[in-house]
Amino acid sequence: MQPYPRGAAPRRTMSNRQVAAIYVAGVLLLLIAFAAGLSVIKKQAVEDPLTPVQNGAAREAQSVDQPSGSELQFEILVAPYGTLARARQVEAELRNRRYYSAHVKMPAGGDTLYRVVIGPYTRADADRVATELSKEGLKGLMVVQVK
Predict the structure, then answer these.
(1) 51-89 per-position pLDDT tens digit
(2) Confidence (pTM)
(3) 66 and 138 assigned to the same domain
(4) How many domains are contained in the chain?
(5) Residues 23, 51: Cα–Cα separation, whole Å
């Protein structure tokens, strides 16, 4: 009687130390990959800064068809994103849909999110545009007052 079927090799088992070493090596590789990804994202944000439409002349050029002055106090928050690339992609999609005042607000202070907003609008116009966007399938829109 043979301990193994004919032609089969004996099974080799790993010790607990070997399993632990493989686990630690995998965790270290994941941490290195994560750190490398963060440094690439930070480097990209520094080398390719976003020019948000927040200064006077550029904002007026974006919103020629909208009222000016103190009436423009509201924006539509489309969504916050963790990466500048994704926020810019959504901004471009909105501009292709003819929402030309769509822009990305850079993170400030301890914030880490890039917010895609459309506006400025009056309250009534912001509500109307938010309703249109909801009908087009965008969810979670918020009308927020500009600070």
Answers:
(1) 333 333 333 344 444 555 556 789 999 989 899 999 999
(2) 0.51
(3) yes
(4) 2
(5) 44
Rounded CA gap, 2 and 6, in Å?
A: 8
CB-CB contact of 134 with 78 (8 Å): no
The pLDDT tens digits for 98-114 are: 888 888 888 888 888 89
User: Which helix (H) or strand (E) is 18 found in, with range?
Assistant: helix 16-47
Residues 6+ apart with CB under 8 A from 136: 97
Q: Which domain holds residue 19?
A: 14-48
Task: Report CA-CA distances (Å) from 29 to 22, 24, 32.
Answer: 11, 9, 5
69 and 35 within one domain: no
Quote the tokens at residue 52. 């948000």
Examine the domain organization and report whether 133 and 75 are in the same domain: yes
CA dist., res. 29 & res. 27, Å (int): 5
Do 141 and 80 lie in one domain? The reply is yes
Amino acid at 51: T
**C-alpha angle 22-28-31 in degrees, rounded to nearest 5:** 145
CB atoms within 10 A of CB 104: 20
